Amino acid sequence: VVDVLQEIPTDMIGYFCNNILKRDWPNSIHVYYFIKTMSEWKEKRAGVHVSLLCMENNIEDGTFIGILYSELGSCTVLAYTQEDSCERLTRALRETRRIKWSDPLMFEAVLQKHTAAVHTIARLKGFETSVYAQSNILYMPSNDAKDLSLKCPADVFVAPLKPSHLPYIHSVWAHNDIYTLRELQTTLRLNGGFGVFRASDHQLLCWAIHTHYGGVGVLQTRSGCAGKGYARLVVNCISQALGKLGISPHVCVMDANLKSLSLFRSGGYQHVSSIQYITVHDFSSSDSSSSS
């Protein structure tokens, strides 16, 4: 039996991104750059296991499911549609056999208008859902990003991150429960990232990475080093670098992270949509699941 979800043909990826997803810009930005990034990683034979799926071989309606398989046995799922009713997205989630609902699932950055479809179908399948993070997408047009100015204090410098920095970065990262060190290493190797370093001893003070979804993420300042403008510096640096590549940088920031929201908004990022990161689990494990 043919599944309701089929791989988007490689030679149609460009058309789907630039002609279909761009109709709903910037709401489609997260899905757009996820597809672009995963396609590039596949071309580089990065060993990434990902499915980029449309419904019934029809890409014209803009319905998309992406599944990124983790080495931990879990899956990150992206769910998106341009249909106001969400009927086709709901049917795709309900009928497909490609999503193993009993596996640990994280629906990533689901637009607020699409969240009901995910929660409803998961519960219909006999599973519970939790909101791992209530968040926001913000973005900056590439033309604005490439023109950002970098003002670097004399006692620090900005440089690309190296693999040797990652064990520490991963150890203090709030989301190291869902992304492994090796996945972070793959992301840095293929996409890159930047750090702010102290000039005197080259200690890493603040950092950000160009993520698997093609945006800015893993932004953090070393404990005790906040309030000195390092986060602004590294955000401007990575945003400028992406802008020069023709990429409009975007970021996913939790509602509760008021400091980060303020940083991006005051730095010229525009709000796109509220989003949810949604975990799926057995009813029996709902008490121990992260919810916010």
From TrEMBL:
Residues 194-272 form the GCN5-related N-acetyltransferase Rv2170-like domain. It comes from the Eukaryota. GO terms for molecular function: acyltransferase activity, transferring groups other than amino-acyl groups. SUPFAM superfamilies: Acyl-CoA N-acyltransferases (Nat). Residues 4-119 form the DUF5645 domain. This is FR47-like domain-containing protein. It comes from Cuerna arida.
